[in-house]
Design goal:
The protein is of the alpha/beta class. The protein folds into two domains: 2-157, 3 Solenoid (UDP N-Acetylglucosamine Acyltransferase, domain 1), CATH 2.160.10.10; 199-250, Udp N-acetylglucosamine O-acyltransferase, Domain 2. The protein is 17% helix and 27% strand. The chain has helices spanning 195-200, 205-220, 225-235, 240-250, and strands at 2-3, 8-9, 14-15, 20-21, 26-27, 31-33, 38-39, 44-45, 49-51, 56-57, 62-65, 78-81, 86-87, 92-94, 103-106, 111-112, 117-118, 123-124, 129-130, 135-136, 141-142, 147-148, 153-154, 159-160, 165-166, 171-172, 180-183, 189-193. The strands form three sheets. An eleven-stranded mixed beta sheet has the order 1-4-7-10-13-16-19-22-25-27-28. A nine-stranded parallel beta sheet has the order 2-5-8-11-14-17-20-23-26, with no helix packed on it. Strand 27 and strand 28 (189-193) form a beta hairpin. Helix 2 (205-220) packs antiparallel against helix 3. The N and C termini lie far apart (51 Å).
Amino acid sequence: MAIHPSAIVDSAARIDSTADIGPCCVIGAEVEIGARTKLYGNVFIEGPICIGADNVVYPFTTLGLAPQDKKYHGELTETRIGDRNTIREFVTIHRGTGGGGAVTQVGNDNWIMSHVHIAHDCIVGDRTVLSHGVVIGGHVHVGDWAVLGGGSAIHQFCRIGKHSMVGGYSVITQDVLPYSMTVSPRENKIFGANAVGLERRGFESETVEGLQKTFRLLTRSGLNTSQAIEKIREDVAMTPELEELLTFIASSERGFVK
């Protein structure tokens, strides 16, 4: 274990012997850092927090600090960060709240660019890309492989479906459908399937075309959601991805972006 002499590390912290703690880092009690995780310097971490293996954390990042929620009064909550995440400069990830599940969680293999904020009680899946300046409100769920464009803001309690792409500077106030490409220059609007991203990840062309047809029926047919779903079940070959999309719609409490 390499700990720079200028780092301040609480004696109660549990740091793997292969981790690397750079200059001027501050590591509090109840912090666990896994194998080969590297903190470049000037990183502030407060527990309870568990950080997995092979993460890279760049300077001026803060992890596990108290949430920006007036309902939080010091109750015991935590932060969990998985493996192989890249967390760039000035990222803030706040711990959970007692009323929101008590945990903020980031999965594995995520690419989190500079100045991203992940608020209390968020759940971020695996292999996401959170571009520069993305702001994610409390209680948001971000699905696997989702891409959030630079400067986007996600309203609290929204869900970002897996394999979706949100265009830069979008303001998202409703759920974003899985597999979709959504942009909001002035209002939220779905532009169809995230075709390029899905093809890059090996989805069959028939699956992508089925999703494209589904999104056209949902957004451009003039049918209401119930009518569109009925038409989709009649006209579009059912796949696991389409079943998941329809289940996502059925469980949406805030409505979804059209």
